[in-house]
Amino acid sequence: DDALEEIKTALEIKISPDVYRILGEIYFNKGVIDLAIRNFRESITLDPSLAEGHFLLGFALGEKGRIDESLEQVKKAIALNPALAQFEPNLPIDIKEHKGHWEFLKEQLGTPKISKNEYQVHFNLGMTYRNKGLFSEAKREFEECLKFQPDNPDLQLALGEVDLFLGKFDSALEFIQKAYEFDFDSPICVNTWGAACCLKGDLAEAAKLFDKALALQNNHTAALNNLAVVESNLNNSAKALDYYKKAIDCGCAEARYNLGMHYLRLGEHENALKSFSG
Predict the structure, then answer these.
(1) Is Repeat tagged as a keyword (predicted)?
(2) From first to last of its 278 residues, what are the pLDDT tens digits of the chain?
(3) In this structure, how many other beta carbons lie within 10 angstroms of the beta carbon of residue 61?
(4) Burial class for 90, CB neighbours closer than 10 Å (0-12, 13-18, 19+)
């Protein structure tokens, strides 16, 4: 019930297909099928490419006995995302309660195979979720990838990044360090490792890692900006300013904002205004 109220509040703030989908899931699992259908429809009206919205709408329609409409929506969903043909590792609804309808749908659809390259399907879907800010869903897809390529450094790094967003810093470090074992000359990997240390409060170790990332690629904008932030927090103003300016020269817009905040902390309001105004 608390989650339901939070989602309703989110809808009042910003109309979002993902929020409507999540609200539909809550109603679906509470057995309020008509409201679930309404919210799933709102979701795919705002974003017709949202495969899970179509899929869940199909299940909700099936609960109401509207079989033809159910099949139509599930077909659309699987056409948009073949990974949904697997169902069980991909959907947030109660599988045991609704598996009978899924078995019926599989008979009707012939259940298309996910893909010759199952790893890439799950990985691409995970990246889509990550870029939309749906980090739990992204992690679920990346974990599916572990079945196919458990030692892939890009996958390990992706899992580490998602865990950082989820606030799971210890497990994030484990994934990132494993990625580093397989790809030790990647500035992206080293920079992400530094970000994890920074979030854990180990600024000294973070600074070393950002330096290492820059040794691997001297114009790595994220590492320059991150190192500037660390130096600022360590009260090394001259070093922070130097790194901020280098990051800005490399085209890092975030560094310009951070530089402005740095000037504000120093009480240099005119310089802060110049930085914010570009």
Answers:
(1) yes
(2) 555 555 455 445 456 788 888 888 888 888 888 999 999 999 999 888 888 889 889 888 888 888 888 888 888 887 877 767 665 434 445 544 555 665 666 666 655 555 557 788 788 888 878 887 888 888 988 998 998 899 899 999 999 999 999 999 999 999 999 999 988 889 999 999 999 999 888 999 999 999 999 999 999 999 999 999 999 999 999 999 999 999 999 988 889 999 999 999 889 999 888 888 86
(3) 24
(4) buried
Closest by alpha carbon to 122, among 91, 93, 156, 84? 84
Same domain, 128 and 84: no
198 and 79 co-located in one domain? no
Is residue 192 a contact partner of residue 176, using CB atoms and an 8 Å limit?
A: yes
One domain, residues 71 and 160: no
Q: Where residue 11 sits, what CATH number does that domain have?
A: 1.25.40.10
Q: Using only the alpha carbons of the chain, give its radius of gyration.
A: 23
How far is residue 248's CA from residue 237's CA, in Å, rounded to a whole number? Answer: 16
**DSSP notation for 247-271:** HHHTT-HHHHHHHHHHHHHHT-HHH
**253: which 2 tokens?**
């817009």
Cα distance between residue 45 and residue 75, in whole Å: 17
